[in-house]
Each structure stands twice: as C-alpha cells, then as structure tokens.
Design brief:
Layout lengths: L2 H51 L17
Length: 70
C-alpha cells in the first residue's frame, strides 16, 4: 500500500472508532430514556387502577327541590 492509502485507512479507522463510541453513548442514553418512560407508564397505570377501585363521585343536585303540592 502506498502512503496515501495507509493514511486514508488510519483516518477511516479513527472515524469508525468515533462512530462506535457515539453509537454506544446514544444507545445508553436511549435505554435510560426508555426506562424513565416505562416507569412513568407504570405509575400512570397504578394510579388509574386505584381510581377504578374508588367509588364514583357523588353528584349533588344544586337546584332547589321541587315544591310539594299538598
């Protein structure tokens, strides 16, 4: 191989190493973000389940009762 080819090979090898490192860091960050979302979804499901167990709210008629006609 000539000098230009070796230099190019070294540069490409260095770029590949940088890309692998970036990919690893991005994969790790994505995993953390997915874990947070999974935790949030689990929390929301738990709250929803608790709401389903509680009795429905009592509706109060705010109008005056009809006057009796006796």
């Amino acid at each position: 191989m000539d000098t230009n080819s070796l230099t190019l090979l070294r540069e490409l090898t260095a770029q590949l190493a940088d890309l692998k490192a970036s990919n690893k860091a991005l994969t790790k960050a994505l995993a953390k973000q997915e874990a947070r979302h999974t935790e949030s979804i689990a929390t929301l499901r738990a709250k929803w389940n608790e709401l389903q167990k509680s009795p429905p709210p009592v509706l109060v008629n705010m109008q005056d009762p009809p006057s009796s006609t006796l």
